[in-house]
Amino acid sequence: KYIYESDVFPKSGEQIQNWKTGLSSSETKKFAFDVFYAEEQSDTLSSDDYWQKERSTATLSTSMSLRSDNHSARADFSHRIVSEDKKKIFDQGEASISNSFLNGAIDLNTDYSLRNIEFYPKDIEYVLVGESGIHDSLGVISEDEDENIYISVTEIDYENPEMSIEVNVDFGLFLKPEIITETFWKRFTSDTFIRLTENSTSSGKYKIYFFDNDVFMNEETTIYGRKDISQVFGINLINKKLTADIEFADEETIDNRYQDNDKISEQLQDFSLRFSGIKNAILELSFFHTARTDTRYSLITDTNGLKADVRNKLSNNLNLTTTALGTAETG
């Protein structure tokens, strides 16, 4: 169907005009699509009774969805041009894809989003504070009185915002062989997670949209970038009464929001055993190792730990959890 709308809202000394037109399909269980174009103009009445153009926007938007029993996809996108003192262009979009194969033995999910936003540059000041053992604003404790600092945002430049692009993608792959096989492989599961985030001032916007290596987590143009990768393997050792998980995770962050080019990285290896053979109780033991670096504090640490969780179901409405944790840290 075709849609057209037009309105004028005059006020004393101000006039707003807008109109919208578009096409939309009949929405069904399997398919839907629409596209719209809209304009809005704001004028003010000058002292000589002349209408002066203050602001105008033009927006093109579209959305589409596809669905079947085991698969679905949806995408929404808008392109907006704003004209005031100078022209600004804003893109915004979201997309999601969900797929299930072999009766759920393989699940594949992807979510993606992008938006153009204005970034306001910030300056921070490092100010020395009193006694040792004081927390700074990031929650860090220093035992040396001379190293205690309080970090505060001292200036935000609201007058000169920078146009930036923020994109995010989440990817998940889940494997459950037991759904399709009775062989040895039915004991295993696999969960893979990948999350990428980039907020960049690079002029190559299409490179940002697709996480091109030239701009992703680039020290010169990235305002904030993050990469998280996690892989978890599950093993059913004894009739689901005794199970094990092995996890590997890698996180990297670059943060230029406060103009100090902070880099953080962390790697995790975790081995967990879960025993549910006791009536109304689950015991979980975890052995883990993490390695972390943080350039803001010139920090390099290695941590080894052991964690024990006991969860007791006392009644339908009451659960008791007991946790013990021990760690050894160097660095």
In short:
With 331 residues, the protein is mainly β.
Structure, described:
This protein has 331 residues and is an all-beta fold. The chain is 2% helix and 68% strand. Strands 1-2-3-4-5-6-7-10-11-12-13-14-15-16-17 form a 15-stranded antiparallel sheet. A two-stranded antiparallel sheet has the order 8-9. A hairpin with a 3-residue loop joins strand 4 (51-67) and strand 5. The longest helix has 5 residues, at 205-209. The model is unreliable at 130-146 (pLDDT under 50).
Helix/strand layout:
Elements: E1 2-11, E2 14-24, E3 31-45, E4 51-67, E5 71-83, E6 87-101, E7 106-119, E8 122-128, E9 149-156, E10 162-175, E11 188-200, H1 205-209, E12 222-238, E13 242-255, E14 262-275, E15 281-294, E16 299-315, E17 318-330
Antiparallel strand pairs: 1-2, 2-3, 3-4, 4-5, 5-6, 6-7, 7-10, 8-9, 10-11, 11-12, 12-13, 13-14, 14-15, 15-16, 16-17
Task: Supply database-style keywords.
17 strands, single chain, two-stranded antiparallel sheet, 1 helix, 331 residues
What class would the helix/strand composition place it in?
Answer: mainly beta
Tally of DSSP helical segments: 1
Number of DSSP E strands: 17
Rounded to an integer in angstroms, the radius of gyration calculated over CA atoms is 27 Å
Q: How far apart are the first and last residues' alpha carbons, in Å?
A: 66 Å
The largest sheet is:
15 strands, antiparallel
Identify low-pLDDT runs: 130-146
Order of strands across the main sheet:
1-2-3-4-5-6-7-10-11-12-13-14-15-16-17
Order of helices and strands: EEEEEEEEEEEHEEEEEE
Helical fraction: under 10%
What characteristic shape results from the CA principal axes? extended
Please report which band the strand proportion falls in: under 5%, 5-15%, 15-25%, 25-35%, 35-45% or over 45%. over 45%
Overall average pLDDT = 85
